[in-house]
Specification:
The complex is a heterodimer of chains A (166) and B (789). Chain A has 166 residues and is an alpha+beta fold. Chain A contains six helices and five strands. Chain A has helices at 26-33, 78-81, 89-96, 106-119, 125-131, 143-156; strands spanning 5-11, 14-20, 52-55, 58-61, 74-76. Chain A has a five-stranded mixed β-sheet, with helices on both faces. Chain B folds into three domains: 17-134 and 197-248 and 254-287, Aldehyde oxidase/xanthine dehydrogenase, a/b hammerhead (Aldehyde Oxidoreductase, domain 3, Alpha-Beta Complex), CATH 3.90.1170.50; 294-464 and 630-779, Aldehyde oxidase/xanthine dehydrogenase, molybdopterin binding domain (Aldehyde Oxidoreductase, domain 4); 480-626, Aldehyde oxidase/xanthine dehydrogenase, molybdopterin binding domain (Aldehyde Oxidoreductase, domain 4), CATH 3.30.365. The longest helix of chain B is centred in the last third of the chain and has 28 residues, at 546-573. The chains are: A alpha+beta (166), B alpha+beta (789). Bound molecules: FE2/S2 (inorganic) cluster (2 copies). One FE2/S2 (inorganic) cluster sits between chains A (100-106, 137-140) and B (196, 248-249, 503). Chain B: Residues 20-135 form the Aldehyde oxidase/xanthine dehydrogenase a/b hammerhead domain. Chain B: Pfam families: Ald_Xan_dh_C, MoCoBD_1, MoCoBD_2. Chain B: It comes from Meiothermus hypogaeus.
Chain lengths: 166, 789
């Protein structure tokens, strides 16, 4: 078995020190080593985006990286984005607009949408669709995902008040 | 009490866990001492297994066991049975791990169990299988040719079954005397369902009690328990608990009793350790049950007046290498019986031949048979309308079943209970502004732009029932549903259903209805599903049965609760139960509103039983087993508008509008969401998706690079509305909506693309309409419009 490598990663504000196999994918490090199972694995060809997390503020597909490549980095996963009672506007948008059904693509979809809004706070429908091209959803037909992102953009621009019950 | 929740777009109670990453899918689970399984799969579509040498794999550090098919057979593990039998059907055994031959790419030949998934996968590579590759056959019609390689030695002609419905002589006569006939050769492309959550199974065996638990990605955990207990492993049914926790989409692909579920159960006992297996997507592509895959000759006859007189269909429906749980039902009762569609066609005949091939087994995929029926019928209707020089909408209108004809007996067994098709069609036409669209199409054609408009009407039959009927048709299952409604001493309510929600939002929609029925806050209701250890029984979720069958059972159980609560209230209020009314969340004496008890008062007294009717059992819970009288028959009109770029062959969706009739809508947010997702899946079949096999039975589109799912920019915002025609035979008048989008949209998009290509003289192309296919088809013609220019 290959020698293990020591890494230091900050995930959702918490610093972790672990010995990992060099071939361990970042997504498996998050799910199996740290137990952060909100980040999902939907494919083995980097096509689905279910594994999307933020690495130093940028959306990345965590199945396309080894854990060792994240050494010294700052990661945010869906668990660190917001919590019940303190949701990120994008999470709130997905809830308000029924942007999810089975929920499997949702963490990756939300992380990709946050990344979009960080870069482009008022995207057009076409820009939203284009930005989410790397994230597959088999349930929603994307209709309400688009609306969820529009809701979040409006919310972040102060155009929408507090949501009814969260 | 607050306003009624039925009909309210309540946001979903299941969402907080999913949007915060705290859902609980099977692969998210870890048990103490858990080990991992990896499968050794055949790279050949057909090969004799001459020898398996597991020694290298077995001695790899961290490997605990390497399991072969022979070992499991010797241990008394039987094959996996199908759940639907036709007369004369061939059911060759399907062992979880094959030991004689591999019959499709991905067929399991051994399983490695190891301390980690990585070790299991590494060691799987070390299992040495000596294969003798054999000729394979992938296409249904090829499998039926004389001399084709047999998939199963005891089925030398590969014919699993043949089936037919309708009066052939009457149909032939109608064709003989027809004014006009049209004929299409259609290929209904094979699809891979691709739920975003890959399949996973985790098994635990407890030695002390000799009990097993299986957590698995399933739409129907009770069916698994029954099949495993009664047929496959002989585990006493009460010693096996099957749990389907959060499941990331199913679409039919999580009905089937899969081999891996048997393997992890077997290994968990053998090693006395919990064993988990999770599919990689590349495994999903070759082992999740596929959908569709028909080769069909479809014909339609009309009389002088433009009335359809007959439809004749001959289909080869590819079963794949083994029979899945419901595969035999799909191209038969869910297909041939739907060929009347929304039309008054008096004579219909459908003949189906179902061959085995060296491909992944096929099962129900969203819509299951009904999209295939709708596609062929609506293609025929468009082609015939064109032949007759009629507008396709007017041709449809002429043939629709009129509203006063219900209940309507079709010539293919089904009796539609209710419908109002023309009103639904008119609403859709008005919303889309059909006349203006046709004018725009004319103008665009003059400019050399190719717009296509596809209008289709459809019905579906869902919530298969009653059980005696489906049993007589071959089902090896009941199709009733159970509900248990349990009121706790504090007035909180647990509702147990035998259906399963894997994206459909039952935890919300069903709670809304229960809250209405019991007149309590919706927050006081929780829905429990997907665990054989908790609910009375269940046949699971598929065929859009959860609302019409499962929720109806729940409603009838809540009504038993109300009846009992009235007796308790009557006792407490010293009145007759007949004088108690249930209003505003209270049980009160009719006309005396201040003589009232709250739901909480009743719940508490039912449990304390201190001051209680002498002849009444304590407690407040009710079970109901509901067997519907008939299927339910949702219907609708879907309209797709596309533009084809003749230079690239690219099809662009411009608009999509649907008007669905699923009866009264419980939660429009959820119902509309089902339509959106269904439409995208159906559009995927029309434009993008196909499981392509080569002659050797290798899948050429076995990953997301080659198998194209609809992505966000393939879709548009869907325009959507309803008409409401209640089902006359269930307590809420509800029908199903889970499959409507998929049933309708493939045909709507296909007709739109063919409409766009009409100026080129193209009458029919097989799906999917990829740019290359469309471009080549255009190149092969002389564009009439150009000639005109
Ligand atoms: S799991 Fe990373 S892209 Fe699919
Ligand atoms: S919500 Fe199921 S895959 Fe997107």
């Amino acid at each position: 078995m290959p020698d293990k490598v020591q890494i230091k990663v900050t995930v959702n504000g918490v610093e972790h020190h672990n010995e990992v196999e060099p071939r361990l994918l970042l997504v498996h490090y998050l799910r199996e080593t740290l137990g952060l199972t909100g980040t999902h694995v939907g494919c083995d060809t980097s096509q689905c985006g279910a594994c999307t997390v933020h690495l130093d503020g940028q959306a990345v597909k965590s199945c396309t990286m080894f854990a060792v490549q994240a050494d010294g980095c700052n990661l945010t996963t869906i668990e660190g984005l917001g919590s019940a009672g303190n949701l990120h506007p994008v999470q709130e948008g997905f809830w308000e607009m029924h942007g999810l059904q089975c929920g499997f693509c949702t963490p990756g979809m939300i992380m990709a949408a946050v990344d979009l809004l960080n870069k482009n706070p008022q995207p057009s429908e076409a820009e939203i669709r284009h930005a989410l091209e790397g994230n597959l959803c088999r349930c929603t037909g994307y209709h309400n995902i688009v609306r969820a992102v529009q809701y979040a953009a409006d919310k972040m621009a102060g155009k929408i008040g507090a949501a009814a019950d969260d | 009490m607050a306003d009624k929740l039925f009909g309210k777009a309540m946001k979903r109670v299941e969402d907080p866990r999913f949007i915060t990453g705290t859902g609980n899918y099977t692969d998210d689970m870890t048990l103490p001492g858990m080990v991992h399984a990896a499968m050794v799969r055949s790279p050949y579509a057909h090969a004799r297994i001459k020898k398996i040498d597991v020694s290298k794999a077995r001695s790899y550090p961290g490997v605990l066991a390497v399991i072969t098919g022979q070992e499991m057979k010797d241990a008394g593990i039987n094959g996996i049975p199908t759940g639907w039998l036709h007369p004369g059907i061939k059911t060759p055994p399907h062992y979880a791990i094959t030991f004689d031959k591999a019959r499709h790419v991905g067929d399991i030949v051994a399983a490695v169990i190891a301390e980690t998934r990585q070790i299991a996968e590494d060691a799987a590579e070390l299992v040495e299988v000596d294969y003798e590759p054999l000729p394979a056959v992938a296409l249904g019609s090829d499998a039926l040719k004389p001399g084709a390689p047999a998939v199963h030695d005891d089925v030398p002609d590969n014919v699993c079954f043949t089936w037919s419905i309708g009066d052939k002589a009457a149909v032939d006569a109608a064709f003989a005397s027809a004014h006009k006939t049209v004929k299409l050769n259609l290929r209904n492309n094979r699809l891979v369902p691709n739920a975003m959550e890959p399949r996973a199974s985790l098994a635990q065996y407890l030695k002390a009690s000799d009990e097993y638990t299986l957590w698995t990605t399933s739409q129907n955990p009770h069916i698994h328990r029954l099949l495993i207990a009664a047929f496959i492993m002989g585990i006493p049914e009460h010693k096996l608990r099957v749990i389907a926790p959060d499941v990331g989409g199913g679409f039919g692909s999580k009905i089937y009793q899969y081999p891996e579920e048997i393997i992890v159960l077997y290994a968990a006992k053998k090693l006395n350790r919990p064993v988990k297996w999770t599919a990689r997507r590349s495994e999903s592509f070759v082992t999740d049950s596929h959908g569709r895959d028909h080769e069909t000759v479809a014909e339609m006859a009309v009389d002088q007046s433009g009335k359809i007189t007959a439809v004749r269909v001959d289909t080869i429906a590819n079963m794949g290498a083994y029979l899945t749980t419901f595969a035999p039902a799909v191209p038969t009762y869910l297909y041939g019986c739907l060929l009347a569609g929304t039309y008054t066609t008096p004579h219909i005949y459908c003949h189906v031949t179902a061959p085995f091939t060296h491909t992944t087994p096929v099962d129900a995929y969203r819509g299951a048979g009904r999209p295939e029926a709708t596609y062929l019928l609506e293609r025929l209707v468009d082609v015939m309308a064109h032949e007759l020089g009629m507008d396709p909408v007017e041709f449809r209108r002429k043939n629709l079943i009129p509203p006063d004809a219900f209940p309507y007996q079709t010539p293919v067994a089904l009796q539609y209970d209710s419908g109002n098709y023309e009103a639904n069609l008119d609403k859709a036409l008005e919303l889309v502004n059909y006349k203006a669209l046709r004018q725009q199409q004319e103008e665009w054609r003059k400019q050399g732009r190719y717009m296509g408009i596809g209008v289709i009407t459809f019905i579906e039959a869902c919530g298969l029932a009653p059980s005696a009927l489906v049993g007589s048709l071959g089902a090896q299952a009941g199709q009733w549903e159970s509900a248990l409604v349990r009121v706790m001493p504090t007035g909180k309510v647990e509702v147990f259903t035998g259906t399963h929600s894997h994206g459909q939002g039952h935890e919300t929609a069903f709670a809304q209805v229960v809250a209405d029925e019991l007149q309590i806050p919706v927050e006081d209701v929780v829905l429990v599903h997907g665990d054989t250890g908790r609910m009375p029984y269940g046949w699971g979720s598929y065929g859009s049965r959860s609302a019409p069958t499962g929720l109806s059972a729940i409603v009838l159980a809540t009504r038993k609760i109300i009846d009992k609560a009235k007796k308790i209230a009557a006792h407490l209020l010293e009145a007759s139960p007949d004088d108690i009314v249930h209003e505003d969340g209270k049980f009160m004496v009719k006309g005396v509103p201040d003589k009232a008890k709250t739901f909480f008062d009743i719940a508490l007294m039912a449990h304390l039983a201190h001051n209680y009717p002498a002849d009444l059992e304590p407690g407040l819970e009710a079970t109901h087993f509901y067997d519907p009288k008939n299927f339910v028959f949702p219907f609708g009109t879907h309209i797709a508008v596309v533009e084809v770029d003749p230079d690239t062959g690219k099809v662009k969706l411009l608009r999509y509008l649907s008007v669905d009739d699923c009866g009264p809508v419980i939660n429009p947010l959820i119902a509309d969401g089902q339509v959106h997702g269904g439409v995208a899946q159906g559009l995927g079949q029309a434009l993008l998706e196909e499981a392509v096999y080569d002659k050797e039975g290798q899948i050429l589109s076995g990953n997301f690079l080659e198998y194209t799912l609809p992505r966000a920019d393939d879709m548009v915002q869907i325009e959507h509305d309803h008409t409401v025609t209640p089902c006359p035979h269930n307590p809420l008048g509800i029908k199903g909506i889970g499959e409507a989008g998929t049933i309708a949209s493939t045909a709507a998009v296909a007709n739109a693309v063919m409409d766009a290509l009409r100026p080129f003289g193209i009458v029919h192309l097989d799906m999917p309409y990829t740019p290359e296919k469309v471009w080549r088809a255009i190149q092969a013609t002389k564009p009439l419009s150009q000639a005109a220019d």
